[in-house]
Amino acid sequence: MSRELVLAICILLSPCIANATDVTGTAKIREADQVQIGNTRIRLGGIDAPAVDQLCLNTKGERWTCGVAARDELIKHADNKSWTCHTRSVDRRGRTIARCEVGGEDIQKWLVRSGWALSYRRFSHDYDADEAAAREAKAGMWQGAFIAPWDWRVRNKKTTILGAIKPPEHAHAILLASASGPVAPSPDCTIKGNVNSAGECIYHTPSSRWYTQIRMKISKGTRWFCSVEEAEAAGCRHTRR
User: Fold this and answer.
1) Most buried residue, 19, 84, 165, 206, by most Cβ within 10 Å?
2) Pick the residue with more confidence: 238 or 186?
3) Separation of alpha carbons 55 and 92, rounded Å
4) DSSP code of 157?
C-alpha cells in the first residue's frame, strides 16, 4: 500500500493505522494499562498495573482502591490527548500489545516511574530502572502496601507484600480481596455502591431496602465502601428508598 493511500485512509478514518504497526487517536482509558482507540483494544506492553478492583493499603495502613487511583491518574495525565501506539503483538484475548506515546512521552515509563504500574519482568526489563526510582521515591502504590498485580489476579496467599509501610497482621486478607467482588473486603467495609440506569452512583448501607438485591460485580459498576464519607467522597449518594 502506498504512503499516499495510507494518508488518504487516515483522513477518512479516525483513529487510523498510520503505519502497519501504529495505531493513533484519542484513547478511552479503561484501566491503568488498558486503553481503547477506536475499535482497537490495547494492552500497554512491558508493564503491569492494578485492576480497577484491586485493593492496596495507604500510608496509614487503611484500605485503598489503588486500581481506581492508578486509572484516574492516567486519565488526568493523558485523557483527551492524541496517542500513538506501536504494535508489538496480539494476545490471546485479542488485545493489541503496544508501546504507546502521548505527546512524545513514553506513557508506560510515566506510569511505572509514577508508581502506578510495575515493570512486567516476565516479558520485559525496559522499565526496571523506573520501578526502582518509584520505589525509592515512595511514589504511587509504593507509598503504602500492595501485592504485584500478577499475584493479585491469581490470589496467591503466600505472595510478597510490597511497599513502604509495615503491613498489619490482617493485610493479606485485605490485599487479596476485591473492591467489587461478591464478598466484602473486610467486616468494616460493607456499604454497597452501584450505578443506576441514569448513571448515578448510589450507595446502600446494610439497613437499606435494596441492599440484599445489589449483586456485586465490577462490570456492573459496583464497589464496596468502608464508610458513608468514603462513598460520598467518590460521588455517590444514599439510596432514596
Assistant:
1) 84
2) 238
3) 26
4) T
pLDDT of 15: 45
Residues 170 and 222 in one domain: no
CA distance 87 to 70: 23
Instruction: Give the model confidence (pLDDT) of 168-179 as tens digits.
Output: 888 888 888 887
Nearest to 239 by CA among 177, 191, 168: 191
Stated pTM of the model: 0.73
Q: Which domain holds residue 228?
A: 180-241
Pick from 98, 127, 126, 97: which is nearest to 113 by CA? 127
**Residues 162 and 236 placed together within one structural domain of the fold:** no
Instruction: With CA atoms as reference, report the closest residue to 118 among 106, 137, 134, 95.
Output: 134
Percent of the residues in the chain that have a pLDDT greater than 70, as a whole number: 90
Note whether 11 and 122 are same-domain residues.
yes
Nearest residue to 74 (alpha-carbon basis) of 27, 121, 40? 27
Query: 51-78: b or e for each residue (b if 16 or more CB lie within 10 Å)?
Result: bbbbbbbbeebebbbbbbbbbbbbeebb
Q: What is the pLDDT of residue 100?
A: 97
Q: Does 55 share its domain with 159?
A: yes
For residue 29, the domain's CATH number is 2.40.50.90
217 and 131 part of one domain: no
Residue 218, pLDDT > 60, answer yes
